[in-house]
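REVIEWER CHECKLIST
Item 1: Sequence provided? yes
Item 2: Single chain? yes
Item 3: Sequence as submitted:
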Amino acid sequence: MRACVAAGSLPAAAGPRRRVTVAAGWGGFHLPRVGAAAASKLTPGKLFVFGLGYTGLGAASFFQQRGWEVAGTVRSEDKVDRLAQRGISAFHFDPTDFDNLGGKALDCLRHATHVLSTVPPDADNDIDPVIMAHAQQLSEHADLFKWVGYISSTSVYGDWEGEWVDETSELRAAGGKGWSRVMAEHEWLALHDNFGLPVHVFRCGGIYGPRRSALDSVQRGGGGSANAARRAQQRYTARCHVYDICQTLEASMRHPRPGAAYNIADDDPADRATVMAFAAELLERRAAGLPLQPAVPGDGPGGWAVPVSSMSAAASGASSSSYDSGDEGGLLSAALRPRDRGASSGRMRRSDARQAAAAAAAVREALAEKRVSNALIKKELGVQLQFPTYREGLSAIAAGDMRPFS
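Item 4: Structure as written out by the authors:
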């Protein structure tokens, strides 16, 4: 069990973080106050995205629609040509191999004005693949980048027994993906401390959006599982629409504060069962040709008027399907399955023991309870959530809203 981490501090095992004064040749980081004209202007630039997956592609589309040049990395070669047809220069980069970019890809990175990484850390080794491969290039060109963003997770806060947390709260993740995220945050912030890289950390709740939401989970259906049982125990779930992530990134670019961390979560950390029931009701209303409007306050689950329907049973069963970035159903299932210890030795192989430890950590992390405050992005960055709760978000998706992808 690893020790908890206070916000802004580095675990002793990773060594102390030191703030190094940036030499005059780096240009310094004297920033205008939020609200000043110089900070509010955002001229379209060149964005390089490490990880053009769901969130990365959403950001790429969002900024491309606003006149930006966009390039980035993908894990599969076949995606390169498809993105090229959309005007996005994509380059193969497999985080599991710790490959280095070369040639034209490095040129795009070096000439970028803004850099975003959505690549998750290697949970087995507590290593960030992007930093492992390209810390040198990022640090050498730190003074040329106007802004760098790292997509992290609210899992870094660990278990707060349902209490509210903000960016100043202790990071209590003690294992699993939450701990890996803590370590990755500190690796990125170390590049800010030591080389002046203008890093900003964004701790996102469960990410959903078009083609990746509770609506899809309900439509897929499915029976109960260990993952469904685990989710049913949770009172609160932080979540955010991918479009609101994109507009928060844009707001941060307008008002940069290197070294800062921000929570991105909506206003209602409702439990999963409530969300799934609402999604089921939306699908019923759409099938019946009724208006798709956010429910009004009532006596339904979570205090909202969500009628019980024949679809609700399907929603309950479908809760085993993941629609956010924090799903760990596979690891949880592995932890609860009986293991074949082997007839000859009666001992676990080393790989089995490692998997068991990871699965146990995932179980502890999955049951962590907290409510995540989004007050800072509203107050400091002026963000107005387009989808302040799952109700607005799911209603828009059900009505065909494809933002930020189109």
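Item 5: Key structural point noted by reviewer: The first strand starts at residue 46 and ends at 50.
Item 6: Recommendation: ____
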